[in-house]
């Protein structure tokens, strides 16, 4: 058993600083690490790029979708506007047998009638009402839309549609549910005007709307 | 030798390198930049125009200009001689144009651009796109087939639409091909409506955007929405009524104005005939514009209300003052008459207005001053205060201020015709404003057409408050309103057709000699009716004019009275104005010459 010569003191401390042996094993993990880092970086960059591209595709797709939906919305809005235009409303109202309300009359909360209520006048479709051919599909022409109760409506202020169906009931009721596109006078007597409307006209306050108007020549 | 040659070549390379990299570096960098970056203008969405309740009267939608590259339709490109015809046959039914016309456009030689359809709907472009894709698929499957629509493209743009077609067209105006307002509110408020164009700049390669490269985008600022004082329903009722009557009377044109008497807001301003701003090309030049503000005409008897207000305000007479009206009156160089021959009438001042006597009005306004000159100056000052001869304050493009000469320049006959509304020109808005002034207790509120604007941030900015000026005293205004009631209410009045049972209605008829714009001489008539209701608590003024009625009656009370009634009924219902329920004033119209007079001083002619 030979004994290794013991270094002592200063020499021993210095000897500790010397590399024990040239290390081969430590190099492999380092190279691996560098390759991994490089490779990882590349792959990350690739993923990043492809996800960016994917996002770009998605953006284009969504933009296209938005555009299509906007177009659709605008087209639908156009249809809605066509229905809501006052001209179209008047035409529809007349087809349902309504006529302009005439003199305004108000029913107060105390039950007092202010103004002079009377039967609505004028049942024929005027040429102005038929300025455009009726292009609207008969969505509203169902019996689900009854004519307004006669006599009562004219006592309330209701814009654009305050009309009484009582006058139309005096006319022969046209059986055709589809009004002619040109708006002939018979279209005024709506198919949905109830035949009993004439009886409903009775309890109206007895004010004559057809009082003679003086014919002083105007200046 | 070789080395010398090599040295020269090397030298040439070095020089060129220096030139590229150092001397001209900026130029090349800029060139590269130009190719690499592409910038596009971003169109700002034009603001909408709405009525007082927010219903859209004008709005913008997406549209496409359908274009084509004629160089892609040649025999060389398509290997067929009739590619333009084939394409035209496919496109014609979609874009609703003539086949030959399209084919001719596609045959334009040496051109790379032609416009096939302007502002087509997205649906139209989608149809074309689908058709093009189908053809392309077919072409790739079958080498013999060609895609004849390969040269058709679209440029996105926007289109101005007016959902109610011709409704309020005169007020709204239109937008020209450049997207700028060409008339009406579109022109007046073009700056607010247009917004600000934006810009986007990005790196591109082969026309495609490079996602990783940076881009700068300055977004477009959409235009503000403009809210008008117009009520769509009342506007429609007014247009419907006037259009019908103008057709019936075979008149040149007509206008109806509806104004809120308290706020001065215009509720309706209807013109007939009108036009459809969706299709300006079909409009007649004469009906384009807003005649209610752009026509100057002699108002006739409706202007008598100003003379009456002046006479009452100056305490020259009272409504009961007696006026003996002869059949003819000699003044200046003319012999004046009323519209009908009559025995001597014994009228009160109220009766002069009710029966619309020209002679009576001349006699009454003569009392405005000691001399005729003073009377003229006094009347002129009132006319000016009522807003005659001045712009109404709307700021509307093309608005006329009418013609009112200063009194020093009044001709001999003008001195006596201006009191009853001839020899002075106004626009319809000015006339309506006069009646609103009387209705509003003598305070003139400048008319307004725009309530305010709503910016892209959704904040509403109300329009500046209208100017208010007192013209006549409250007492005078109330008296004039009572006198106007007699016009409609009294059996002898000229405006009986305008009665609305249950309501106290104030009104005045007018039938004026009309100046023919072609000859500059009197020819035909201007029929009008103006008034407000309820007379004792006014809310709405309605003014109706029909120019040159050629069939049937031309009297203002006969043809405009019913329109006034119809529009007033509708406005009262829409605004929910109940009748006041008070008894009408019923001022006396005539007097018995035998009985002594009690109040006022006589206003008989000298």
Nearest-integer average pLDDT of chain A: 65
* End-to-end gap of chain A: 149 Å
Largest sheet of chain B: 7 strands, mixed
The number of domains of chain B is 2
What share of residues are in beta strands of chain B? 15-25%
Please state the overall shape of chain B, judged from the principal axes of the Cα atoms: elongated
Task: Describe what you observe in this structure.
The complex is a heterodimer of chains A (219) and B (606). With 219 residues, chain A is an all-alpha fold. Chain A has a domain of 53 residues. In chain A, 39% of the residues lie in helices and 3% in strands. Chain A is built from 5 helices and 2 strands. A two-stranded antiparallel sheet of chain A has the order 1-2. In chain A, strand 1 and strand 2 form a beta hairpin. The N and C termini of chain A lie far apart (149 Å). Chain B is α+β, with helices and mostly antiparallel strands and 606 residues long. Chain B has 2 domains: 177 residues, Alpha-Beta Complex (Penicillin-binding protein 2a (Domain 2)); 329 residues, 3-Layer(aba) Sandwich (Beta-lactamase), CATH 3.40.710. Chain B has 19 helices and 24 strands. In chain B, strands 2, 3, 4, 5, 11, 19 and 20 form a 7-stranded mixed beta sheet that branches. Chain B has a 5-stranded antiparallel beta sheet with strand order 13-12-24-23-22, sandwiched between helices. In chain B, a hairpin with a 5-residue loop joins strand 19 and strand 20. Chain B is elongated. The N and C termini of chain B lie far apart (129 Å). In chain B, 49% of the residues are buried. The C terminus of chain B is likely disordered. Chains A and B meet through helix 2 and helix 3 of A and strand 3, helix 6, helix 10, strand 22 and helix 19 of B.
């Amino acid at each position: 058993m030979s004994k290794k010569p013991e270094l002592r003191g200063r020499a021993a401390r210095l000897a500790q600083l010397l590399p024990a042996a040239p290390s081969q094993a430590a190099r492999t993990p380092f190279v691996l690490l560098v390759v991994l880092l490089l490779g990882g970086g590349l792959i990350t960059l690739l993923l990043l790029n492809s996800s960016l591209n994917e996002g770009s595709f998605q953006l284009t797709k969504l933009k296209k979708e938005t555009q299509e939906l906007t177009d659709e919305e605008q087209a639908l809005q156009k249809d809605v506007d066509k229905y809501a235009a006052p001209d179209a409303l008047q035409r529809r109202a007349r087809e349902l047998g309504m006529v302009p309300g005439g003199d305004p009359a108000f029913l107060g909360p105390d039950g007092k009638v202010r103004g002079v209520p009377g039967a609505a006048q004028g049942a024929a479709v005027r040429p102005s009402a038929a300025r455009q051919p009726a292009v609207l599909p008969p969505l509203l022409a169902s019996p689900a839309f009854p004519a307004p109760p006669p006599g009562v409506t004219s006592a309330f202020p209701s814009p654009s549609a305050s009309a009484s169906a009582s006058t139309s009931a005096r006319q022969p009721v046209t059986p055709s549910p589809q009004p002619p596109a040109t708006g002939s006078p018979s279209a005024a007597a709506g198919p949905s005007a109830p035949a009993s409307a004439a009886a409903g006209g009775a309890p109206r306050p007895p004010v004559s709307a057809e009082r003679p108007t003086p014919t002083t020549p105007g200046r | 030798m070789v080395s010398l040659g090599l040295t020269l070549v090397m030298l040439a390379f070095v020089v060129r390198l220096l030139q590229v990299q150092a001397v001209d570096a900026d130029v090349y960098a800029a060139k590269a930049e130009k190719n690499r970056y592409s910038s596009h203008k971003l169109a700002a969405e034009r603001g909408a125009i709405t009525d007082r309740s927010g219903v859209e009267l004008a709005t913008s939608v997406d549209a496409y200009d359908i274009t084509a590259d004629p160089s892609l339709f040649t025999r060389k490109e398509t290997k067929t001689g009739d590619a333009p015809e084939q394409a035209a046959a496919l496109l014609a039914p979609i874009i609703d144009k003539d086949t030959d016309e399209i084919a001719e456009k596609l045959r334009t030689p040496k051109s790379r651009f032609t416009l096939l359809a302007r502002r087509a709907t997205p649906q139209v472009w989608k149809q074309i796109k689908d058709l093009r894709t189908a053809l392309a698929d077919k072409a790739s499957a079958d080498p013999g087939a060609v895609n004849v629509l390969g040269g058709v493209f679209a440029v996105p743009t926007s289109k101005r639409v007016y959902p109610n077609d011709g409704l309020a067209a005169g007020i709204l105006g239109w937008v020209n091909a450049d997207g700028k307002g060409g008339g009406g509110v579109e022109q007046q408020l073009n700056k607010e409506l247009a917004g600000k164009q934006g810009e986007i700049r990005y790196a591109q390669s082969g026309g495609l955007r490079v996602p990783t490269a940076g881009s700068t985008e300055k977004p477009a600022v959409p235009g503000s929405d403009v809210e008008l004082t117009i009520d769509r329903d009342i506007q429609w009722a007014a247009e419907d009524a006037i259009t019908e009557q103008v057709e019936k009377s075979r008149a040149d044109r007509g206008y109806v104005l509806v104004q809120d008497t308290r706020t001065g807001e215009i509720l309706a301003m209807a013109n007939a005939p009108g036009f459809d701003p969706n299709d300006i090309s079909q409009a007649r030049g004469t009906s384009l514009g807003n005649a209610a503000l752009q026509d100057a005409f002699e108002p006739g008897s409706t202007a008598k209300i100003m003379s009456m207000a002046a006479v009452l305000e100056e305490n020259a007479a009272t409504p009961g003052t007696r006026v003996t009206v002869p059949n003819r009156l000699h003044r200046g160089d003319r012999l004046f008459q009323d519209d009908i021959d009559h025995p001597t009438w014994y009228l009160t001042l109220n009766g002069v207005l009710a029966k619309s006597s020209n002679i009576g009005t001349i006699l009454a306004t003569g009392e405005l001053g000691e001399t005729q000159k003073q009377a003229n100056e006094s009347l002129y000052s009132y006319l000016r205060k009522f807003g005659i001869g001045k712009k109404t304050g709307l700021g509307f493009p093309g608005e006329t201020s009418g013609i009112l000469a200063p009194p020093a320049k009044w001709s001999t006959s003008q001195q006596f015709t201006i009191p009853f509304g001839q020899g002075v020109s106004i626009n319809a808005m000015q006339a309506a404003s006069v009646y609103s002034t009387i209705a509003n207790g003598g305070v003139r509120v400048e008319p307004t057409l725009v309530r305010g604007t709503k910016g892209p941030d959704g904040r509403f900015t109300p329009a500046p408050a209208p100017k208010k000026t007192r013209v006549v005293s409250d007492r005078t205004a109330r008296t004039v309103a009572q006198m106007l009631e007699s016009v409609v209410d009294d059996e002898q009045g000229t405006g009986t057709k305008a009665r609305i049972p249950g309501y106290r209605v104030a009104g005045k008829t007018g039938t004026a000699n009309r100046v023919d714009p072609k000859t500059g001489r009197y020819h035909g008539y201007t029929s009008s009716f103006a008034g407000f209701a309820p007379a004792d608590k006014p809310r709405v003024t309605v003014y109706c004019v029909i120019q040159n009625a050629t069939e049937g009656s031309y009297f203002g009370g006969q043809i405009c009275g019913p329109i006034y009634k119809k529009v007033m009924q509708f406005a009262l219902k829409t605004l929910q104005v109940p009748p006041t329920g008070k008894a009408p004033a019923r001022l006396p119209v005539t007097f018995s010459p035998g009985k002594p007079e009690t109040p006022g001083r006589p206003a008989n002619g000298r």
